[in-house]
Amino acid sequence: MNPLTPVISPAQIDAVRQLINEAYQVVVLTHMSPDGDAMGSSLAMRHYLEGLGKRVSVVVPNSFPDFLAWLPKANEHIIYESQRQDADALLEQADLVICTDFNDPKRIGALGEKMLSLSCKKMMIDHHLFPADFPDLTISYPACPSTCELVYRLITCLSPLASNLSPEIATCIYTGMMTDTGNFSFNSNYPEMYQIVGELVAAGVNKDEIYNRVFNAYSADRMRLMGYCLYQKMKIFPEHHTALIYLSRKELYRFNFQSGDAEGIVNLPLQIKDVHYSVFMREDKVNPTELALSGGSKTKIKISLRSQGNRPVNVFAKDVFGGGGHANASGGEYYGPLSEAVQRFKDHYREYFTGEVE
Ligand code: 5GP
Ligand code: MN
Questions:
Q1: For position 277, which CATH number holds?
Q2: What is the rounded CA–CA span in Å between residue 254 and residue 249?
Q3: 42 near 100, Cβ under 8 Å?
Q4: Which of 66, 101, 203, 353 is the most exposed place for a label (fewest CB within 10 A)?
Q5: Which residue among 214, 235, 250 closes a domain?
Q6: How confident is residue 2, by pLDDT bands cut at 50, 70 and 90?
Q7: What is the pTM of this model?
């Protein structure tokens, strides 16, 4: 293996080693509606720590999409929404909690409150801006395109022998690197990324199969929903190079909506020449763990934003929809009717979607 530029400092590596050495029971948490990077980073940590003889479970706030269920041990994830007692028992026994791919307890709802109430050690491994100050140890690198790449760097610093990178760990890491870069089509232009990919393939990753499992796994309903969005629902605001798609729950039901079906729809309008900003909104139910946040509203609108080039959308996400995220991929939520969220978008997008910034 050629050495990579050190990203995580030696002092942090030592601190991680100490936290791991002192722990036997470990719980790994990742964010709501887990994506490939969330699933990949939590499972890679699980496999790595199990290889060191630890007892490890992964707890997620809600269910994960089918196209990620093949990841090794994904089906052993404990889902907080439906298995709260089991999860609480594990959390209460944990010596160490590791939070991957999220920067704030608010991103995991009621699970975050439970986590904060625990006296055990906590560690964060993440790549979102502005990490909240709750863990004993924070490994946060917003410049890193995926948490999975950070996990790769961490594991290979902790255990430099290539033989420590099992095919399971490598598969989980590759999946998150692939999904958080749109199959290496954004945030992906530096040689070390491909050095890492080379090492992962050497460790047993079948990258073509992973691509197929993740990106060619749509249901016919999902494909039709995509067609409906593009044909009937996409509005383009040419003077601001912006596209908007929004869907009510009624529309989602018409296409037998399943968790994960909305994934990627927000990216589609960016394939249009001269569309540089894309906004996707869908109506969702407020789940019981979020009632406190909703101010009595029974509907929640989930907003996804994407952009190309030097056109950040995270400021809009934060200011207009109380969310955040990365410059080119962010999101937020609105508690109230869909029509109000759409109006809020229309009232504000002109101020923010003004073209490339310096
Ligand atoms: P997605 O559109 O895939 O749901 O989210 C894209 C990115 O936006 C996520 O990786 C996350 O960084 C950010 N994001 C999405 N929803 C929220 C939210 O409600 N609050 C915050 N702070 N960030 C969000
Ligand atoms: Mn991520």
A1: 3.10.310.30
A2: 9
A3: yes
A4: 66
A5: 214
A6: low
A7: 0.90
